[in-house]
Write a structure and sequence with these properties.
Layout lengths: L1 E10 L2 H8 L7 H16 L9 E9 L2 E6 L8 E4 L5 E4 L2 H5 L12 H8 L13 E2 L4 E6 L2 E6 L13 H19 L7 E3 L4 H9 L4 E6 L8 H10 L3 E6 L2 H6 L1 H8 L7 H12 L5 E3 L4 H5 L8 H4 L3 H4 L9 H7 L14 H6 L5 H29 L2 E3 L5 H9 L13 H7 L5 H4 L10 H4 L7 H7 L2 H4 L4 H12 L6 H19 L2
Parallel strand pairs: 9-10, 9-12, 10-11, 12-13
Antiparallel strand pairs: 1-2, 2-3, 3-7, 4-5, 4-6, 7-8
Helix pairs in contact: 1-2, 5-18, 9-24, 10-16, 23-24
Length: 510
């Protein structure tokens, strides 16, 4: 008997699958998707993920065998743990594993070295000893006490020089047009997250969402909500603005770190958590624009790719790299010189040998950063708030275009995401489609220095808890340097602080 034991996600091509697999398309979504997955597994076995479009992670038990799989990009998390007696514990949350018999909670302190550089947990290990992530594009088979992991998909890039920019833009636009009807079902009403950027604006323009949700601040230097409101007005949609205060921001950090299950030093994650809670008050379904930056060359640093050249494989570990090894060696009480972030991405550089530098950078971010930071944040914070988020641009069909798109149509001297923006300009005014990338900016670099808000940061930097892991003089010197005007240090402070908040939630309070 085939039994679906664990599932999180949304299957986009459900209509075609219902017809092919003989599943009643009139079933309620939850029942229908579970039936699709079981039937698909019975038909295609371990190749099941090749036939699914969407976001998914699931586990099936049949005839004494456990089969677990995670989608190609890792939009939904999946974890597993082998007990001392060889039993496999698994789930889409770490807390689900922690509740099961045989789990022993221990800190994997080595992960702190990775975290202090990347600000997120990259690779298959976690901060809980023995708990591993099933990585994107992988499946797991557990039988007779043995576990085997197989990689069924990975990004491949083959530049096609035969098309013009306009032809590429047409293909992007047509593909997104075809995907959008799959993202929402009849009878569902979705809103759409909206920043000042092209990704969320394009998703909105292509969708039927009538309400948009944005975040803003009193400080105009960091406030994109005015640009979002302009876009909403142009497209004839309503805009809700959630104004975030520093008090609100700092107060919610423990909630975020607990529900994230692993520490995350991305300051925008706190904003996103607040946005999810606010949005969930008036809808249960929302669109978001993740994926386009990594697929189509959206980050400003990508414009330096050619200059980095072959040196990339010596230092580029993804979108963030905030602390070098010599600094970590001074700060950390227990430093292992053989446990290096660059080792996490060596296999990617091997796979992309001979490809251009931009493709190498993109591939690192697709395989490491998206899974470890962006998708984790979207999944955990939406789930905690009771909000479902669907990301139309994260799709194998969209990536297929990006994988063939020459780098010159991704980034040039003046612009990033060139082809994607050209596609977006078909439904957006040029000033929106080609607006300079701002990023998801947060005033935390200012708030951290403010005595009204940083009391808990200071307290944790001088706590017995911190002394277990850090040289207190060293981390307080970083704080003092920041207060004295070196604002670049804010990321280091925030990364240390978020780890300490997370550790307190999981190893002190519980």
């Amino acid at each position: 008997m085939t039994e679906l034991k664990e599932y999180r996600g949304h299957i986009r091509n459900w209509r075609g699958l219902c017809e092919e697999l003989g599943v009643d398309a009139g079933l309620a979504r939850a029942e229908r998707e579970r039936a699709i997955i079981v039937k698909a597994y019975e038909k295609w076995g371990r190749e099941v993920a090749d036939h699914l479009y969407g976001m998914f992670a699931f586990a099936i038990e049949t005839d004494g065998e456990i089969f677990c799989v995670r989608d190609q990009f890792g939009t939904k998390p999946f974890y597993y743990y082998e007990t001392a007696d060889g039993k496999l514990l698994y789930g889409t949350t770490i807390r689900r594993i922690m509740e099961q018999e045989g789990f022993v909670k221990e800190l994997n302190e080595k992960m702190l070295q990775i975290y202090m550089t990347l600000t997120y947990v990259a690779g298959e290990d976690t901060f809980f000893k023995g708990v591993k992530k099933l990585m994107p594009g992988h499946y797991l088979v557990h039988k007779n006490g043995k576990t085997e992991i197989t990689r069924y998909w990975h990004p491949e890039f083959h530049a096609d020089e035969s098309k013009s920019l306009e032809e590429w833009a047409d293909e992007i636009h047509t593909t997104i047009q075809n995907i959008m009807p799959e993202v929402k079902e009849d009878g569902e009403t979705a809103e759409s997250f909206l920043s000042g950027g092209v990704d969320s604006s394009y998703v909105l323009a292509m969708s039927d969402a009538q309400v948009t949700d944005s975040c803003g601040y009193d400080d105009e230097r960091f406030d994109e909500s005015g640009l979002a409101k302009q876009t909403a007005d142009i497209l004839g949609r309503k805009n809700n603005r959630c104004k975030i205060t520093p008090e609100q921001y700092f107060d919610i950090v423990p909630y975020v770190m607990y529900n994230m299950e692993q520490p995350l030093g991305d300051a925008s994650a706190i904003v996103f958590a607040i946005a999810c809670k606010a949005t969930a008050e008036h809808t249960k379904l929302c669109y978001s624009g993740e994926g386009a930056d990594e697929f189509f060359g959206g980050y400003n640093m990508y414009r330096n790719a050619e200059r980095y050249g072959d040196n990339l494989k010596t230092f580029y570990v993804g979108n963030t790299n905030i602390m070098k090894e010599d600094e970590k060696q001074r700060i950390l009480k227990h430093y292992d010189p053989n446990y290096l972030p660059i080792d996490l991405v060596k296999y990617i550089y091997d796979e992309t040998e001979g490809l251009d530098p931009l493709t190498k950078m993109s591939d690192v971010d697709i395989q490491i950063w998206l899974e470890g930071d962006i998708y984790l944040n979207v999944d955990k914070m939406s789930e905690a708030a009771g909000l479902e988020i669907r990301m139309p641009l994260t799709d194998r069909r969209v990536f297929d275009i990006a994988s063939r798109l020459p780098s010159r149509f991704k980034v040039n001297a003046e612009q990033n995401k060139v082809a994607f923006r050209t596609a977006a300009a078909k439904v957006l005014p040029e000033e929106i489609a080609f607006r300079k990338k701002l990023g998801f900016i947060v005033p935390i670099r200012i708030w951290l220095a403010d005595e009204r808000y940083n009391a808990d940061v200071r307290a944790k930097f001088n706590s017995d808890m911190a002394a277990k892991f850090f040289d207190l003089d060293e981390i307080n010197a970083i704080f003092a340097d920041y207060i004295s005007g070196n604002s670049d240090n804010w990321r280091k402070i925030w990364t240390i602080y978020t780890f300490l908040v997370w550790y307190e939630e999981y190893f002190v309070k519980r």
